[in-house]
Design goal:
alpha/beta; six-stranded mixed sheet; 12 strands; globular
Length: 331
């Protein structure tokens, strides 16, 4: 597939250099490490939130480093976890005495390297906590939700934990609100086409032109079923029904809805899907406090969509509506 790039082995670093050039007053390199992107403004006496993961999912992960969100990010190669060394560089650059929350998606490589970095940090006197986002209902049942993959619902964990940290909460409080947010977030998606990694001569998986896959992961992990392409109304019914059931959302509940494009699906299509999801929610008398529609967690140029729902209580709703800013996304 044609891509705007130079050498494929420089894809990540050259893309990151472009981001540093585009936002020089907002981002900088931690310890001189291009892969350790940090917020330019280090706040004293605030819990630091660090995330990270493989490249190729913009705005996840680095797009959520910003005001009222994360403080730094460790960037790996495309679809590959960041190194322990890079995580340490981020940690040493943003830690300010109040402790560090490592907040990332539930994948084996990420878990291994963040856990190792946490051990090193604690040996150096830095207090740490770990929360893994696990919102993809296609990857495990509700009773084992902590085993699920992390996909677009990670956006809510960043927003809620970041807001509480901004308010001056301690590490244990920020850790608990992140866990509470993960428990109350579920996501479900569909893929219409594959994506091609830089330098590869074929897509990471094959799917027929008239088919779609329900529940596919953002790295091409198998979904739960494949079939003929559905209409937006049918996709909305499939996704919404499953996510509401998973979260036990009832009439009168208040929620936030995230309609996410995986990289190739147009905004016009995303708004058609939101129209159809909103119609179902109105019929069920479920209140949408905040809707997010756009590209919040992509998979290179994969075509497809995902639906995430965050079930709200008073605390989470207040934090969700609190001000935040990043150059990449708007809340």
């Amino acid at each position: 597939m044609k891509k705007c790039m130079n050498q494929n082995n420089n894809f990540v670093d050259e893309s990151l250099e472009g981001i540093y050039e585009a936002y020089p007053d907002f981002y900088q390199k931690g310890n001189g490490d291009t892969r350790a992107l940090i917020h330019h403004c280090k706040q004293e006496s605030k819990v630091s939130i660090i995330t990270g993961g493989g490249y190729g999912h913009l705005p996840v992960f680095l797009g959520y480093v910003g005001d009222g969100l994360c403080d730094g990010v460790a960037v790996g190669n495309v679809f590959t976890s960041p190194s322990c060394e890079t995580i340490q560089n981020v940690t040493n650059s943003v830690e300010n005495g109040s402790g560090v929350l490592y907040l990332f998606g539930n994948y084996f490589g990420d878990s291994m390297n963040f856990e190792m970095a946490s051990e090193f940090a604690q040996l150096n006197g830095i207090k740490t906590a770990i929360v893994k986002v696990s919102d993809d209902i296609a990857s495990a049942p509700r009773e084992r939700y902590q085993e699920r993959r992390g996909i677009a619902g990670i956006v809510y964990a960043y927003k809620i934990a970041g807001a509480l940290a901004e308010n001056g909460a301690n590490l244990e409080e920020v850790e608990q609100i992140a866990k509470k947010t993960v428990e109350n977030t579920s996501s479900f998606g569909v893929a219409f086409s594959s994506c091609t990694l830089p330098g590869a001569d074929k897509p990471i998986f094959e799917i027929d032109e008239d088919d779609m896959e329900i529940g596919m992961g953002i790295h091409g992990e198998p979904g739960i079923k494949r079939g003929k392409m559905l209409s937006s109304e049918e996709i909305a019914m499939e996704l919404t029904t499953k996510v509401l059931e998973d979260l036990s959302v009832m009439e009168g509940d208040r929620i936030s809805v995230l309609i996410n494009g995986l990289g190739m699906t147009s905004r016009e299509e995303l708004y058609i899907l939101y129209r159809d999801v909103a119609s179902i929610l109105k019929e069920k008398k479920i209140s949408v406090v905040k809707a997010l529609v756009g590209e919040y967690a992509t998979s290179m140029e994969m075509a497809g969509v995902s639906l995430s729902i965050l079930k709200l209580d008073e605390e989470i709703e207040t934090l969700l509506l609190q001000h935040s800013y990043t150059p990449f996304v708007s809340f």
